[in-house]
Queue: 3 jobs
Job 1
Amino acid sequence: MATPDRTRGTHSRIVRIATIVLPVGALALLSTLFLLARTVDPNDAIPFAEVDVSERARDQQLTAPRLTGLAGDGTAFVLSAASARPDPDDPRRMTAETMRLVLEGDAGGRAVVSALRGRVDSGERAVDLAGAVRIQTSTGFTLRTERLLGSLAELDIVSPGEVTGDGPLGDLRAGGMRIDEDEAGAARLVFTDGVDLLYVPPTR
C-alpha cells in the first residue's frame, strides 16, 4: 500500500511533466496549422470596381421621385419620374428621366403628359419636359411635341415648337400651344402660331 508521501511525490512529478509537455504540444499543433495553411495569393483578393468615391457621392440619384400639389386655379398635379439627379448646388433643382405629369381640374378634366427627360425646380414649381412629349386629354386630344416648359404654380405651360395630333374634330397642326387658366380659373388648351385642322367627320 502506497504511503501518503509517495502519493504526493508521484502527483508532483505528473504536474511537472504536464507543465512541460502541454505547452510543447500546443506549439506543435500551432506549427502544424501554419504549415498546412494555404499560401495567400494577393491576386485572389476580392476585386473592387474602380470607382471614384467622391464622384459617386456627388452623383446622387433618386429612384421614382414624386411631386404633388395644387396650381393657383385649384388644378391638382402629380409629377413623377423613373429617376432624378439633384443639382449639387441646389437640391430643389433636378434633371429627370422618363417623366410623367398628370393634371386634374376641379370640373373633372384630366391631361396626362409624358416625356423622355426633363428638368424640375420644386422650389419654383417649374418644369421643362423634352423628348417625344405626348399629351393625352380626357376631352379626346392626343398631341405630340418636342418640348413643354413653364410653371405649375399658376399653371402656365407652353410648347415653343410645333404641335401635331388629333382631337374630336380631326387631325391638327399648330405652331405652338399653351396650357393655362381661362377667366373662370379652369385649365384649358390654347393652340397658337397658326392652326391647321383637317376635319374628319364622325363615322356612324
Job 2
Amino acid sequence: MLSRTVQFTTGLLKPEFLQLSFNSGIKYFAPPKNYDDIEIPERPRLRVYEKVPMYPPNLKPPKMQKRLRYMRGPENLHNTLQLKQYGVIATGGGRMRFEHFEMARLVVARHLDMKRMFAIWRIDPPWQPVTKKGQGQRMGGGKGAIDHYVTPIKAGRVIIEVGGKCEYPEVHQMLKIVAERLPFQAEAVSQEIMEKKIADEKWQEENNQNKYTMKYIIQNNMGGCHKFISSFDHKWYGKYL
C-alpha cells in the first residue's frame, strides 16, 4: 500500500497547513453471487386465489365456529423459507381476507422483475367461513349467514416467498410494503436475517444470568400469578397472546 502526503497554504490571515493523504494499491472486490442453479418458473407472479372456496353442487357451504386457536400460538410447520432467499413472515396471529391477498398480489406484480425474479404463496386461499347477521336484527334466530372467508395465520408463518437472481436490497421495499399492510404484525426477512435471529435467541437463552425468567415465574407460581394469567401462558409462558 502506497501513501503520500500533500501540504499547501490556504491563504487566510495566517498560513495553515492541511494534510491530505492519498492511498493507492490493490483493491479486493468480492466475486458476484452465482445464480446458475436458479430456474425461473413459467408463471413468476403470484396466482389469483378464489374469494369463495368451491364446493360440490350438492353440498351446502358449512358454517363454522370462531376457533381462535387456529391463529394462536407459534407456527410449527411452515416457519422456514423453502427457497432460502427472501419472504414475508408473520410475527403475530391474525386472519387474512381476500382483500389482503389481492393487495399482496398487486404490490408484488407491480415491483417484480419477471425476467429474473418470481414469487410464490406459502398460505392457503380463504377457507374458514365467518358469519354475520344483518344490521338491525334482534338476538336469537340461529347463526347468521356466511359473510366472507378468511385464512387464519399463526406467528412465524411464512406468507409469501420471493426468489430468483436478485439481492435482498432489490426486494426489501416490496416485501416491506406487503408486511406493513397486512392485518397483523409481519416483517420482511431474508435467509441470513432468520439465521441470525435464531442464533441470537439461542445465545440469549444460554447466556442469560437472570434466573427469574417468565417460564420460571409461571412454573413456580410466584406472586400467585396462577390466579390471573391465561391458560395459554402455562403453555407459551407469555410469549404469544
Job 3
Amino acid sequence: MAKDKKTGYEPLTSIEAISAGLGTAGYISTTQISTAVFLAHGLRKPILIEGPAGVGKTDLAASLAKWMSLPLIRLQCYEGLDEGKALYEWKYGKQLLYTQILKEKLSELLGDAKTLAASLDKLSGFEDLFFSPQFLEARPLLTAMQQSKGSVLLIDEIDKSDEAFEAFLLEVLSDYQVSVPEIGTIRADVPPLVILTSNNVRELGDALKRRCLHLHIGFPDHAREQRIVRARVEGISDTLLNQLVRFVQSVREADIKKRPSIAETVDWARTLLLLHTSTLDEAFVRDTLNVLLKHESDIAAIAPAIPKMVREATGPDARGRLASGYPDVG
C-alpha cells in the first residue's frame, strides 16, 4: 500500500478498518474513538483525550502502536516538567571528557600558532563540536521527531504539567518541529501520531485545544465492558462475565469517591478466576471488593448494599439479559 506523501504513513482506509485493527491489539474501540483516530491520521492533528482515569485513554496509544508496528514513545507529565526532560539535554559528562582530551592534545592542536589570535582561531573550530548532535541526549519529544518510520507519541496526563510547559508544546504540535538554539530547527520527516491524555486536574488552555481533536472516553456500557473483559481475560464463562460486569456497573452508579475503572474490572475478573469462582456470591464479593475499590470509605459505603447488588447481578433477570441482550462476545 502506497504511503501518503503528507503524513508518511500508509493511509487508513476506513473507520471500520481502524476498529478491526485495534481489535487485533486487544482494544475494543467505538465508532467515536475510531473516527477520532481516522481524522488524526488524515489531518495530522493530535488527539486530546479526556475522561475518568482507567477508561482506556493510555491504552489506546499503546494499542495503536502495537497494531501499526510503530514505536510507542511516552512522556509522563508532572508538575515542574521542563524542556530539558521532555525535549533534549546536553551530554555534559561526554562534553567534559572531550574537554579533557582536548586539553591533553592542546599543544599538538595549536601546532605552530605563534600568537594568541592564531591560537584562538585554531581552537574556534572545536566550539561547535561540543554542541553538535553527537552530544545531544534526545528526550521523548525529540526522539519521536527522529523516528524515520513514524511513531506514536503519548503525552500522558498533560493536565498535571504547568501552563508554561503547555505553551512550549504549541510549536511541537503545530509544525512537528523543535528548535535547538545551538543546532537549529529539527523537523520530523514523518510526524508522530500524537495522543494527549487528561484527567481534568486543571483546565487546559484554548491554544492547545485548538491544535487538537477532542475525544471524551467515558465508562463503557454493559455490552462493551463484556467485550473488553473477554478480550483481556481468557477462560471466563459467559455467566460469570455477565454477573461481574452487572455488579461493577451497579457499583459505578453508587455515590462513592472513586468509581472502578475498566482496568479494575479486568483485575477483579482475573481474581475471581484465580479463586475458581463460577458465580458471584456475597462471601467472594466481600473478600475481594478491595480489588475493585481502592478507598476504604467506598468499600464501607458499598458493603450494606452487597446482598441486593449480588441478587440483581445473579438473579433470573440477569440470566435473561445474558440470553437476549448480551450474547457471547468472545
